[in-house]
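Saturday, quiet lab. Running sequence design on the C-alpha cells for the scaffold JK sent over.
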C-alpha cells in the first residue's frame, strides 16, 4: 500500500510538473482533472500499452529500440483524447541567448508538443522515483 501511494504521488507530481513546464500541454480543470488524468493514464498503461508495444515490436526490433518513445507519445495522445480538460496545442518557443550561445525561435506542432510532453513526463517520473527510492 505504501508503494502504491508513493507511486501515485510521484506520478501526480510528474504530471503536474509537465503541465507547468511545457506551454502547449495544458490542464483546464485544475487538480481534480490531474487526478482523473492520472487514473486514466494508469488504466491506459495497464490495458492499451501492451497492445501498442506488441504492434510496434517489429519497428522496435529493426531500430534496436530507438522508437520505444513512440509508445509513450501514443499513450499521451490517447489520454488527451479521453480526458478533454488535458489539452495539447501548438506553441512557440521564444528562443534563448546566453553568452553567445543562441537557441533560435522554434514553432512546435501538436505532434512535437506531444513528444516533448512525453519526454518531460518520462524524465520527471524517472527522476522522482530515483529520489524517492529506499
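Result came back. Writing it out in full:
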Amino acid at each position: 500500500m505504501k508503494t502504491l501511494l508513493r507511486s501515485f504521488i510521484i506520478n501526480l507530481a510528474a504530471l503536474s510538473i509537465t503541465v507547468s513546464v511545457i506551454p502547449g500541454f495544458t490542464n483546464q480543470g485544475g487538480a481534480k482533472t490531474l487526478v482523473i488524468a492520472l487514473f486514466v493514464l494508469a488504466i491506459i498503461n495497464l490495458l492499451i500499452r501492451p497492445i501498442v508495444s506488441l504492434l510496434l515490436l517489429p519497428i522496435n526490433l529493426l531500430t534496436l529500440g530507438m522508437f520505444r518513445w513512440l509508445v509513450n507519445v501514443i499513450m499521451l495522445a490517447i489520454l488527451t483524447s479521453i480526458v478533454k480538460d488535458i489539452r495539447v496545442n501548438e506553441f512557440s518557443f521564444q528562443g534563448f541567448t546566453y553568452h553567445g550561445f543562441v537557441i533560435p525561435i522554434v514553432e512546435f506542432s501538436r505532434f512535437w508538443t506531444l513528444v516533448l510532453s512525453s519526454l518531460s513526463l518520462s524524465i520527471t517520473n524517472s527522476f522522482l522515483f530515483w529520489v524517492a527510492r529506499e
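Notes for JK: The helical segments are 2-21, 31-47, 49-55, 57-62, 69-82, 110-132. The two ends are 15 Å apart (CA to CA). Ask whether to fix the surface positions before the next round.
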